[in-house]
UniProtKB/TrEMBL annotation:
This is Dolichyl-phosphate beta-glucosyltransferase. Its EC number is 2.4.1.117. Keywords: Endoplasmic reticulum, Glycosyltransferase, Membrane, Signal-anchor, Transferase, Transmembrane, Transmembrane helix. The chain crosses the membrane at residues 66-91. It is found in: Endoplasmic reticulum membrane. CDD domains: DPG_synthase. It is an enzyme of class 2 (transferase). It catalyses: a di-trans,poly-cis-dolichyl phosphate + UDP-alpha-D-glucose = a di-trans,poly-cis-dolichyl beta-D-glucosyl phosphate + UDP. Signal peptide: none annotated. It is a single-pass membrane protein. One of its GO terms (cellular component) is cytoplasmic side of rough endoplasmic reticulum membrane. GO terms for molecular function: dolichyl-phosphate beta-glucosyltransferase activity. It comes from Pongo abelii.
Amino acid sequence: MEPSAPLHRLGAEGTKAAFSPPRHAGALRPAGATSLVAGPGRAGALPPVCRSGIGRAAPAWRMALLLLQLTVLGAALAAAALVLISIIAFITATKMPALHRHEEEKFFLNAKGQKETLPSIWDSPTKQLSVVVPSYNEEKRLPVMMDEALSYLEKRQKRDPAFNYEVIVVDDGSKDQTSKVAFKYCQKYGSDKVRVITLVKNRGKGGAIRMGISSSRGEKILMADADGATKFPDVEKLEKGLNDLQPWPNQMAIACGSRAHLEKESIAQRSYFRTLLMYGFHFLVWFLCVKGIRDTQCGFKLFTREAALRTFSSLHVERWAFDVELLYIAQFFKIPIAEIAVNWTEIEGSKLVPFWSWLQMGKDLLFIRLRYLTGAWRFEQTRKMN
C-alpha cells in the first residue's frame, strides 16, 4: 500500500491547491493582462499608465496657476501704473495757456508800414473767408503756398465780386525772414487782404493758429499749412462738406481735410517702422480721444466762426497734438464734423522728427484724456480772448 500513500497525498495537496482562495486579486488575472493593482499590499493604487498621466497633468496645472498669478500681477501693476500716470498728469497739468498778447502782438503793419490795431473774433464778421497760415522758419516754402492761395482767391473774387477774403500769416517766432517774406504779399495785395502777425516768442503750431483765429474777420475760417502740401482750391470741397452738414447747431460745424484715401500709397513709400508708428498713433487717437475721424492731423480744416470760437477757447495743447484736442473738444460739444478727401503732396522740410515727435504726441494723447478725465482740464463754453 506504499504506492497509494503518495497518490493520496498528491490528491489531497491538489485538492487543497484547487480550493485555496487566491492571496490577491492579481492571482485571477489572465496571463499578459494588466493589473489594476500596483503590487502586493497596495490595494487601490492606479496602474503605471494612470500614474504617468497624473505626473504629466501636475506640471500643466502648476503652469496654468502660474500664468493666472502672472496675469493678476500684470493687471495690478498696469492699474497701479495708470493711477500713477493719472496723478502725474493731474499734478503737472498747466492751466489753459494765456490768451493775452504782448504789446507788439496787438498790431499789424499795413502796406505803408504803419501800425494798425488787430480786430477780434468777438467782432461781427466782415469777410466771407479768413485763411490762417501758421509759419515757423518758412521763408523758403511760404512763397509757393501764398502764390497758389492768392492766385485762387483773386480769380474767385473776379468770378464772384461779392466774395471777399483775408489771409493772416502768423509768424510763430521764426529765426529767419518769414515775416519779411510774408509782408511782401501785404505790400502787393494790400493789408485788407494780407496781414502778418509776428509773435514775440514761439508758441507752437496750435498757439499760432489760435492767435490768428482770434484776430480773424471771416464768417468761415480756414487753417492751412505754410508748406502748401494741400492744393488750395480744395477749399471748395471743404465748403461743400460744411454746407452738407446743415442745419448747423448754434451755427457750429467743422470740415476736416483728409489724407486717409492716400494711406495705401503712403504705406508703400514708407519704411515698416514709420508705418508701425502711424498705425500705433491712429490706434491711440481712436482709443483715447477722437472717434470716427481717420485723419486728425491734416492741416487743412475749415470752421464756422462760432465753431472756431468754441473749440479754440478750450484749447490747452499748443503743439503737434493740438488737432486731436481740438476735435476732442468739438465732439464733446457735439459739433458736427465732416471728413473730406483732399489732394495732398508731401513737401520736403517737415519740422517733425519721426520717432521723437510721434512719441511726444503719444504722450500728449494720453495726458489729454487723463487730464480731462480727472478734471485737471475743463471744457469752456466760451472764453473771451484778450
